[in-house]
Specification:
Layout (H helix, E strand, L loop, with lengths): L1 H36 L8 E14 L2 E13 L4 E9 L2 H14 L2 E2 L11 E5 L2 E7 L6 E2 L2 H8 L6 E7 L3 H13 L8 H16 L1
Parallel strand pairs: 7-8
Antiparallel strand pairs: 1-2, 2-3, 3-4, 5-6, 6-8
């Protein structure tokens, strides 16, 4: 009986080393194929999800829950937009909010990595104040304002958020403050300065 049990114990040990080397290259090949099939292309716009809330609507049968997403989109240059939308799940809400933000993008004037002048906007209960800053200052801002400014080419700026703490209102107030910025060339005194420069060139 002891001699009959020995071959039963030795056969699995002999098969084990033969199966291992054959399975390892197959796994490695699958991983390499997956990486090669999905090449990453640079995105034109950067998307940042600021906040996601679960909202409920009361109906006859009870409550219906959905998700509301607040997304900011920018090209890391002079274009930025904010969108809010609802969806049955988180991914649907984010994709809808991203589409809304892309449709409502604005162009902001940027001078030497900062904004051209101060701006203060009150929207609903939120009030946002933004100021230009010297090089090396960085972005001194709160959570929502920092995320909105982070997708632009502004590197130095001071800001203060007053009033409401509603993230949606703060985000839209920040967009309105950026929208109200006027480029340096369109200031009231800009025409006088350009006229003086042209007069000096004619005299020479």
């Amino acid at each position: 009986m002891a001699e009959e049990a020995k071959p039963a114990t030795t056969t699995p040990q002999a098969k084990a080393p033969a199966d291992k080397p054959a399975s390892r290259p197959a796994r490695g090949g699958r991983r390499d194929d997956r990486r090669n099939q999905a090449p990453q292309e640079p995105k034109q716009f950067e998307e940042v999800v600021i906040n996601i809330d679960r909202v409920a609507r009361v109906v006859k049968g009870g409550r219906r829950f959905r998700f509301k997403a607040l997304v900011v989109v920018g090209d890391r240059k002079t274009k930025v937009g904010v969108g809010v939308s609802k969806g049955a799940d988180v991914q649907a809400a984010i994709s809808k909010a991203t589409d809304v933000a892309k449709k409502n993008m604005i162009t902001i004037p940027v001078v030497n990595g900062t904004i051209p002048h101060d701006a203060e906007v009150k929207l609903s209960g939120a009030r946002v104040l933004i100021k230009p800053a010297a090089p090396g200052t960085g972005i001194i801002a709160g959570g929502v304002v920092r995320q909105v400014i982070g997708v632009t080419s502004i590197n130095n700026m001071l800001s203060k958020s007053l009033g409401s703490t509603n993230k949606v209102n703060i985000a839209y107030a920040t967009i309105e403050a950026l929208r109200s910025l006027v480029p340096r060339e369109q200031w009231n005194n800009a025409d006088k300065k350009s006229a003086k420069k042209e007069a000096k060139k004619e005299d020479k």
